[in-house]
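Contributing: when you submit paired examples, paste them exactly as shown. First protein:
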Amino acid sequence: MIHGLTFKEYVEEEKTKLSEMNKAEKIDYFKEYYLKLCIFAVVVLILLLWLVVDIGLNLRHNVVTGGVVNTELNDEGAEFLGKKYLEHLKLSRVFNQVGVAPDIFLDDDDPQSYTIFQAELAINSYNYLITDDKGLDYVVETECLADLDTVLDSEMSGQLSDKKIYRKLKESGTEIAAAIDITDTAFAKEYIEPGGKVYFVISGKEEKYDSAVNMLKYILEK
């Protein structure tokens, strides 16, 4: 009911009112009684659409997430690790996503940069890392990484035996295969700014190690 009228009666009454008005009066009537309502309806519709899109994006399957630490990755490299990786896997961008954090820098003059990165490692934000010597040493210190000798299958492990970088864990003193040296790969030469060693590290949750291994294979096949 609207002002004691059914919706149909209300519509008929409004039509009658409008039929008795000239163009200028109709415009004034609309501005006075309906303009604010229309603006409100449009705003609500936009918010609802934004909410639906946002929920849809957040519900997409996260295939893999990587972080590039103390290493400059160009725009083409970010696309290679993101959009092109989904294309390589023949996965739809509507239902899947690949995360890449291309600019993680550990600054000795900014202790917070270490604190933030350590917190991200602790909550398994990254399935893999691409980093330099400094970044590798810090990840080893936090012990938030996988032993590649136990993660890679025997065939891949053998193929990369001369590229494995071993480091000792601080807590236990155990030596592990902490990284793969990818400095001389086509990927690093094309997408990474020259200047030092480039390593691939597997981190994050153990049940997601396979996603990082697949990314490593993709990079090596470049």
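Second protein:
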Amino acid sequence: MWKGFFHLLKKDFRLMVSSKFFLLALLSLFLYSCYINFVYVHIDQRIYPVCLYDPQEKLSVSPEYVTKLDSRESLEAVCADRYSVGIDFSHDVPEIYLLSSGLETTDRYRMTWGEAVLHGNVNGGHADRIGAENKEMKSRREITAEFLFFELSAVGFLGLASMLFKEKQMGVIRVHGILPVCRSVFILSKLLLLLLSDLVFAICLTVINLGTAGAAQTLPGILLQAGILSLIMALVGFLCAVRLPDFKQFSLFYLILAIFVTTPVFLAGQTGIEWGWIVYHPMYHLFEAVKAAYFAAPITAVPYYLACFGSIILLFLLSYQTLYREMAKEG
């Protein structure tokens, strides 16, 4: 069995090399790292603009933080963008005026910033340290986690599927149907190579963008979550590739998966959209687990890991049965 397993590993490794799998992974690593180091960490989002209507000049605030307006109507017109914060100082009691952005958390931040400007507690106009991290390191951790999740979700799903479709075209599945090789080994060899390549990718991406100190602190948790995500997506890709007759149908299925499965997760994580149903989305929990690992706050809930490992076992069994039926059909 082990001799056949090592032969399968060598065959799958050569297939990954010939399909430029490692070259594409290296290119992704280079592009992600360049974007993080030369673009993303230098993005400084403009803090919420504050507009002041103070006809009697009661409030003394630096023009660096506020824009003075000459009427209440102008104040309301500017705040119609649902991003700016207005301060109306035309009455005895000042009023903070804003229109809801639709996100409770964002509105709370806007209100807090408006009150800080009103009371003169601006302290430089931006946050330099968030928790135990400075702003740059927080940005690095956040975007690196998101890139890793995106890469593993796509590569695990597409990488194994592309290998399998190529083997189907070459008649490899028909040949393996008559060889004395355990079918589970046929699946395990592909899973092992993809898992190892994903873990190496996770290590390189983390070390390059967080530094050795930041990576040493978080890598154990990151590798655990990367391994779980890699296995789940690879098995889903394997199952779909065996079931679907050609790569065109598989590509359409992946497009649907990307739009309706992955996109809501990114919207909920990036924009703060409050969807109550998102907690029932399995990919959302995987996404949050990867982000938590990057902030050295790994998920410790036992039900989460039971669900993950149960899903891996179930997907493996489904893949085995599907492969068995496909080999019987071919041969």
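If you have annotations for the second protein, write them as plain sentences, like these:
The first strand starts at residue 50 and ends at 53.
The chain has ten helices and six strands.
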